[in-house]
Specification:
Layout: H1 2-16, E1 22-24, H2 43-49, E2 53-64, H3 68-74, H4 77-83, E3 94-106, E4 112-116, H5 117-120, E5 125-129, E6 135-144, E7 149-153, E8 163-165, E9 175-180, E10 188-199, E11 210-213, E12 225-227, E13 233-240, E14 251-255, H6 256-269, E15 275-276, E16 279-283, H7 286-292, E17 298-303, H8 308-312, E18 319-323, E19 326-327, H9 331-339, E20 346-353, E21 356-363, E22 365-366, E23 371-374, E24 383-387, E25 392-397, H10 402-405, E26 413-419, E27 425-427, H11 431-438, E28 446-452, E29 455-460
Parallel strand pairs: 1-8
Antiparallel strand pairs: 2-3, 2-5, 3-4, 4-7, 5-6, 6-7, 9-10, 9-12, 10-11, 11-14, 12-13, 13-14, 15-22, 16-17, 17-18, 18-19, 18-20, 20-21, 23-24, 24-25, 25-26, 26-27, 26-28, 28-29
Length: 461
C-alpha cells in the first residue's frame, strides 16, 4: 500500500509539473530473418525516432597556465645568456573557448531533454538543434556525474518525446539502432545487436549497468538514443572502447530504466537521492562457494550500525541472492539495484543464511556523501573534496590553484599521505583526516598517493 501511495504521489507531481514520460511495457519486438536471409527495412523505425533526437553544441571557457617550474626554467638567466629571451612567458592564466558536439533525446513535449553529463559539463552555453532545423538556447536542469547523465530544457512546445522501453526486458542478441550526431553529422543511424548486459565494472562511472552493443557509436553519438525495433528507448549512448577514438564495435549505453529514474529525480527534485542499504559486500568466488555452500549471490562482510541493513536484521555472512524477486550475481549489480530503488523504498531481500533461504524486508535510507570546498588549508586550497566509502575523492579543482598546477584532477582518489610531521605513510579515509595531516604545512612538505583510473602515483604538495 505504501509503495502504491508513493507511486501515485509521484505521478500526481509529474502531472502537476507538466512532465510526462512515455513508457511502453509491451514485449520487445524480435524479428528473425526470412528464408532469403533478409530483414525488414528499418526506415519506419528511424522516421519515428529521428524527431526525438537532437544535436547539442556547447561552448565553455577554459583557463590554462604554464606550470611554475617550466616558467622558471625558461626565465633562467643562464639560458637567456646563451639562447636569448624566449619571449614573454605569461604568469597569469590564459582563457580560451572550447567547442564540443553531442546528442540528446527529447523526453517531454515541453522541452526536457536527456543527455550525457560529459556532453554539457562545464558549458557556459548550450545550443540545441532539433530535427526541423530550429535552434534553441538550453538551460541545465540538473546533472548526475555518477551515472554520466544530465537533463537540459529548451523553451519549446509540442515536441516529439521518445517512448521508453523496459530495459530489464532486453536480451543479448536483440537488434538495436543507435541514433545521434557522430562527428557532427546529424541524424546518423547505425544498427547492430546487444552484445552483453549488466556491464558494471568498466570503470567509467560510479554507477554502471551498461548495455553493450556493436552498433557503431562514435564521438558525437554521446547522449543519443539506442532503440529497439519498436523505436523505443532502451539506452542512452555513452561510451566506446577504442584505441583510435573511432568505433571498434564495442559501445556502451546507459539502460533506459536508469535514465528514467535519474531524469525524473533531476526534474522533480533537482538532485538524485539514491537508496542505501549500509553493507560492505563482496562477490562469491569459487573458494567462497565451497565455504558457504552456494555459488552465486553477494556476500555481506560488514553491516553499518544504525543502517537500513542493521535495522532489518541483516548480518555479516548473509548472502543476498535477489532483490524484489530479481536475481543478483555480483556486488555491482546489487549496488545498482539498491541505489535506483530510491531512498524510503521497502525492498524484499532473498537471503541465504546458515544453509537456508529467508526473506528480509528493509526500508532503504538515503545515500549521503560529505562534500567540502577547502580554503583554510594551504595545500588543499581550491579543492572540492567528497567522501565516498571511507575514501576521499577530488570533486572539483580550481584551475588557478596550486593543486591544479601540481597535476591533481577531478576524480582522483587520495589514498595515503606522508608528511614531514608523520614521517610515514598514513591512509586517508575522511576529509577531516586529510585536513589535519596537511594543516600548517608549507609547499614541499607532503607527499600524497593518488589513485587515478586504477593506477597509483605520487604527487608532492
Amino acid at each position: 500500500m505504501k509503495k502504491l501511495a508513493l507511486a501515485t504521489a509521484l505521478s500526481a507531481f509529474l502531472f502537476a509539473a507538466n512532465i510526462h514520460l512515455n513508457v511502453d511495457k509491451t514485449p520487445i519486438k524480435r524479428v528473425a530473418p526470412n528464408q532469403n536471409g533478409l530483414v525488414m527495412s528499418f526506415a519506419p523505425i528511424v522516421q519515428k525516432v529521428i524527431p526525438s533526437v537532437v544535436n547539442i553544441s556547447t561552448e565553455k571557457v577554459v583557463e590554462t597556465r604554464i606550470p611554475e617550474q617550466f616558467r622558471r626554467f625558461f626565465e633562467d638567466p643562464f639560458l637567456r645568456r646563451f639562447f636569448g629571451p624566449f619571449g614573454n612567458i605569461p604568469n597569469q592564466p590564459q582563457k580560451r573557448k572550447e567547442f564540443a558536439l553531442g546528442s540528446g533525446v527529447i523526453i517531454s513535449k515541453n522541452g526536457y531533454i536527456v543527455t550525457n553529463y560529459h556532453v554539457i559539463s562545464g558549458a557556459t552555453k548550450i545550443i540545441v538543434k532539433t530535427h526541423d532545423g530550429k535552434k534553441y538556447k538550453a538551460k541545465l536542469i540538473g546533472s548526475d556525474p555518477k551515472t554520466d547523465l544530465a537533463v537540459i530544457k529548451i523553451d519549446a512546445k509540442n515536441l516529439h518525446p521518445i517512448t521508453f522501453a523496459d530495459s530489464s526486458k532486453v536480451k543479448v542478441g536483440d537488434m538495436v539502432l543507435a541514433i545521434g550526431n557522430p562527428f557532427g553529422l546529424s541524424e546518423s543511424v547505425t544498427h547492430g545487436i546487444v552484445s552483453a548486459l549488466n556491464r558494471n565494472s568498466i570503470g567509467l562511472n560510479a554507477y554502471e549497468n551498461y548495455i553493450q552493443t556493436d552498433a557503431a557509436i562514435n564521438p558525437g553519438n554521446s547522449g543519443g538514443a539506442l532503440v529497439d525495433l519498436k523505436g523505443r528507448l532502451i539506452g542512452i549512448n555513452s561510451a566506446i572502447i577504442s584505441r583510435s577514438g573511432g568505433n571498434n564495435g564495442i559501445g556502451f549505453a546507459i539502460p533506459s530504466n536508469m535514465v528514467k529514474f535519474v531524469a525524473v529525480s533531476l526534474i522533480t527534485k533537482g538532485k538524485v537521492v539514491r537508496g542505501y542499504l549500509g553493507v560492505l559486500i563482496s562477490n562469491i568466488d569459487s573458494s567462497k562457494a565451497k565455504l558457504y555452500g552456494i555459488g552465486y549471490g553477494v556476500l555481506i562482510n560488514k553491516v553499518e550500525p544504525n543502517s537500513a541493513a542493521a535495522k532489518a536484521g541483516l548480518k555479516p555472512g548473509d548472502i543476498i541472492v535477489a532483490v524484489d524477486g530479481e536475481k543478483v550475481t555480483n556486488a555491482g549489480e546489487l549496488r545498482n539495484k539498491i541505489a535506483f530503488k530510491g531512498a524510503g523504498t521497502k525492498v524484499k531481500l532473498r537471503v541465504y543464511r546458515n544453509g537456508k533461504f529467508i526473506t528480509i524486508e528493509a526500508t532503504l535510507k538515503a545515500l549521503k556523501t560529505k562534500q567540502e570546498t577547502i580554503q583554510n588549508v594551504k595545500l588543499l586550497k581550491g579543492l572540492t573534496l567528497k567522501e565516498e566509502k571511507n575514501s576521499v575523492v577530488i570533486e572539483k579543482v580550481d584551475p588557478n590553484s596550486y593543486a591544479a598546477m601540481m597535476g591533481l584532477q577531478k576524480g582522483d582518489k587520495i589514498v595515503r599521505v606522508k608528511t614531514i610531521k608523520t614521517g610515514k605513510w598514513v591512509k586517508v579515509t575522511s576529509i577531516d583526516e586529510l585536513k589535519n595531516l596537511l594543516k600548517g604545512l608549507d609547499r614541499g612538505d607532503a607527499l600524497i598517493e593518488v589513485e587515478r583510473k586504477n593506477q597509483l602515483f605520487i604527487v608532492q604538495l
